[in-house]
Amino acid sequence: MAYGLLVYTGMHIFWTMTQLKSSGGSVLPYFALVVLVIAIIPGCRYLERRWEQLAASGVDDATLAPMFRKEMGLFWLCAIGLPIGLTLLFKGVAALF
Description:
Helix content is 90%, strand content 0%. The protein is mostly helical. It has one domain (2-96). Helix 1 runs antiparallel to helix 2 (28-56) and helix 2 (28-56) packs antiparallel against helix 3 (61-96). The mean pLDDT is 81.
């Protein structure tokens, strides 16, 4: 999960910096970075704690494996897709103003 956060952060900063250069000093890219801190990191910590509790519950690993693969796939989709989606959202909002 730490690698996912690193990928998300790197992509988020890259896309945000692209937005910063093209928007002429808008505050919206900084807001996107606040979203990173306020929403994503605690969400990942929640997911990590949940899986720690599931692993400690004694449930068979074979039972948890399909659910884990599904959630990790969704996690990676979000880690890669959210920076792009947020940047496009903020560019759209910036274009309105």
